[in-house]
């Protein structure tokens, strides 16, 4: 199979879809890999590194898309890429379709095969290709929350962990999954007073057992959230419904009840955000303020730490990419139920319910496509 690795063109996105080590594994398996010149420079991988691993370097993104059977990248295609995608071309990347109708309709129109990292799901309900970036984003959420608490950025002027004789900041984490757990772990390690919310009582029991004493647990509902937001300095949104839009758990009318300089970090922004006032931002302009509340809503948070993020992501994606290349997407998805759940759009048909429901689009069961 011919694999293409284009340079990411989303603003401030420095990750790359395949490392030189991944290229070597692909070429050892008999595949041809074309890498766009400069694709890995943001992660300190250079053209010569890829060439030594067996890749062929192409100067432009247009050439990479034109030659490849499968495109392996990190972030969803953005508008300049839409028309470069060929009919029947396999795209293996993050898509987050439910938060972006133009992208969804463009991929339907291009009749591409869109296999989304974020919905690859194992039989035990784990999301192996989302977990690495969730770990990075969760830890970064606390870092960014601590940073924007500083008065220079409009925050309350608090040190997250306080000092002896001065109380620490209070951090609320909504969602006890991978992102929330990592955020709470970082915040507690920095000495903050942390509360983590989740609807799953068993999950809260687990977190209560493994977290340090400065982490409390709470079951969320509208009343408890409304009361809680009045008292916390950093609020991290870490909820996820795989493949679907995130629920709006903090509404516009709650903002005036918060303390001036409160920091909201919405890690769910890729899925539309879990705060009603959230809108995607970039690393170049990461925050905005509404009612004296700071919103940090960068849609590709791990892109700020591309070396860590690229290695973590490609460690997880490479085995699946090899299956797709070795067997072809249909056979690989028929034989691997996790990959099958990654299929979102296939040759113009929406085959993932969360996407069809988000935009009221016709839904075709993926089995009908695979069994043709």
From TrEMBL:
Binding site for NAD(+): 134, 198, 203, 239-240, 267-270, 298-301
Domain Alanine dehydrogenase/pyridine nucleotide transhydrogenase N-terminal: 4-137
GO biological process: one example: L-alanine catabolic process
Entry annotation: catalytic residues: 96 (proton donor/acceptor), 270 (proton donor/acceptor)
GO molecular function term, any single one: nucleotide binding
Coiled coil: none
The reaction(s) this protein catalyses: L-alanine + NAD(+) + H2O = pyruvate + NH4(+) + NADH + H(+)
Entry's EC annotation: 1.4.1.1
Protein name, UniProt field: Alanine dehydrogenase
Organism per entry: Plebeiibacterium marinum
High-level lineage: Bacteria, Pseudomonadati, Bacteroidota, Bacteroidia, Marinilabiliales
């Amino acid at each position: 199979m011919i694999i293409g690795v284009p340079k990411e063109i989303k603003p401030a996105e420095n990750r790359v879809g395949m490392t030189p080590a991944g290229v070597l594994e692909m070429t050892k398996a008999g595949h041809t890999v074309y890498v766009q010149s400069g694709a890995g420079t943001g992660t300190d991988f250079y053209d010569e590194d890829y060439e030594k691993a067996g890749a062929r370097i192409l100067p432009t993104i247009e050439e990479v898309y034109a030659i490849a059977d499968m495109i392996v990248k990190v972030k969803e295609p953005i508008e300049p890429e839409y028309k470069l995608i060929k009919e029947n071309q396999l795209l293996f990347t993050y898509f987050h379709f439910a938060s972006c109708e133009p992208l969804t309709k463009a991929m339907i129109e291009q009749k591409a095969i869109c296999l989304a990292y974020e919905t690859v799901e194992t039989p035990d309900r784990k999301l192996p290709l989302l977990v690495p970036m969730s770990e990075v984003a969760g830890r970064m959420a606390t870092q960014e929350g601590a940073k924007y608490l500083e008065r220079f950025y409009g925050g309350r002027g608090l040190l997250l962990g306080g000092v002896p004789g001065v109380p620490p900041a209070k951090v609320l984490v909504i969602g006890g999954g991978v992102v929330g757990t990592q955020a709470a772990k970082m915040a507690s390690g920095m000495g903050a007073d942390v509360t983590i919310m989740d609807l799953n009582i068993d999950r809260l029991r687990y977190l209560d057992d493994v977290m340090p004493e400065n982490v409390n647990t709470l079951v969320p509902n509208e009343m408890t959230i409304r009361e809680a937001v009045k008292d916390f300095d950093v609020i991290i949104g870490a909820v996820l419904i795989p493949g679907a839009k995130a629920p709006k758990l903090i509404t516009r009318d709650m903002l005036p009840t918060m303390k001036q300089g409160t920091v909201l970090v919405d890690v769910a922004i890729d899925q539309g955000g879990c705060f009603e006032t959230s809108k995607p931002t970039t690393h170049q302009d990461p925050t905005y303020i509404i009612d004296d509340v700071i919103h940090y809503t960068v849609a590709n948070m791990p892109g700020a730490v591309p070396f860590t993020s690229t290695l973590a992501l490609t460690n997880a994606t490479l085995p699946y990419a090899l299956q797709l290349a070795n067997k072809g997407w249909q056979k690989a998805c028929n034989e691997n139920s996790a990959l099958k759940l990654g299929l979102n759009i296939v040759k113009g048909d929406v085959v993932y319910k969360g996407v069809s429901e988000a935009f009221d689009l016709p839904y075709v069961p993926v089995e009908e496509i695979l069994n043709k």
